């Protein structure tokens, strides 16, 4: 069933994320190996700035970051309506006024172009086709930066996450972005993930 094949051109992982696995995105264990505090510190969003959580899923990190940085406007962008429905439901129970769920491909999503001080791409690079990567670039202000954090193919004995051959090593991830004109800098290894910043390709 390759209904969506064309828009995944360039993606490392062959199949898109299954929304039925949404509950796993809410597993508190995620914050043990990728603490929201560390991500907030790395992102270093300017005061009152705009963060787009790209491929936010159920918005677990968007909500956690909103608690740490209530001054920032956080847009949880995803292409899967069930994910955003889950997020809206969570927000109705546990409000985070600075978090706005946004569906990819809508006028609301297009209105974010060129507005993001920071884009967080958490566990999505291996799933992104080239068109989605270009869309991510369009969200950034000229001096904005994207923080890519993803499963590390080099991590030994990784008991969780996608199969090794569906994800990148840090070097492969950077190579892929550099090939599309991004500049990458900064490097950080977590237990199962790598993290680095990228500045968008010149127009």
Write a brief caption for the model.
The chain is an alpha/beta fold and 203 residues long.
Description of the structure:
With 203 residues, this protein is of the alpha/beta class. Helices cover 31% and strands 24% of the residues. The chain has helices at residues 22-25, 29-33, 36-43, 60-68, 81-93, 107-110, 130-139, 170-179, and strands spanning 50-54, 73-78, 99-103, 116-122, 140-151, 183-189, 193-199. The protein has a 7-stranded mixed β-sheet, with helices on both faces. Strand 2 (73-78), helix 5 (81-93) and strand 3 (99-103) form a beta-alpha-beta unit. The longest helix is centred in the middle third of the chain and has 13 residues, at 81-93. The N and C termini lie far apart (36 Å).
Helix content estimate: 25-40%
**Strand tally, please?**
7
The total count of helices amounts to 8
Secondary structure class reads alpha/beta
Please compute the radius of gyration using only Cα atoms.
16 Å
Overall average pLDDT: 88
Overview features:
globular, alpha/beta, 203 residues, single chain, seven-stranded mixed β-sheet
Chain-wise SSE layout:
Blueprint lengths: L21 H4 L3 H5 L2 H8 L6 E5 L5 H9 L4 E6 L2 H13 L5 E5 L3 H4 L5 E7 L7 H10 E12 L18 H10 L3 E7 L3 E7 L4
Parallel strand pairs: 1-2, 1-4, 2-3, 4-5
Antiparallel strand pairs: 5-7, 6-7
């Amino acid at each position: 069933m390759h209904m969506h094949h064309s828009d995944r051109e360039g993606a490392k992982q062959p199949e898109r994320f299954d929304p039925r696995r949404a509950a796993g995105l809410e597993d508190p264990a995620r914050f043990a190996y990728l603490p929201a505090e560390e991500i907030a510190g790395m992102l270093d969003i300017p005061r009152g700035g705009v963060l787009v959580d790209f491929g936010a899923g159920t918005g677990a990190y968007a909500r956690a970051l909103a608690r740490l940085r209530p001054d920032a406007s956080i847009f949880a962008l995803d292409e899967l309506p069930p994910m955003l429905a889950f997020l809206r439901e969570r927000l109705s129970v546990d409000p985070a006024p600075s978090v706005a769920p946004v569906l990819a491909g809508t006028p609301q999503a297009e209105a974010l172009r060129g507005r993001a001080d920071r884009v967080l791409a958490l566990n999505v690079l291996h799933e992104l086709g080239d068109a989605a990567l270009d869309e991510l670039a369009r969200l950034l202000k000229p001096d904005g930066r994207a923080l890519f954090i993803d499963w590390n193919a080099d991590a030994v004995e990784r008991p969780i996450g996608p199969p090794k051959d569906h994800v990148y090593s840090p070097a492969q991830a950077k190579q892929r972005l550099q090939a599309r004109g991004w500049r990458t800098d900064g490097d950080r290894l977590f237990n199962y993930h790598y993290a680095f910043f990228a500045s968008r390709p010149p127009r």
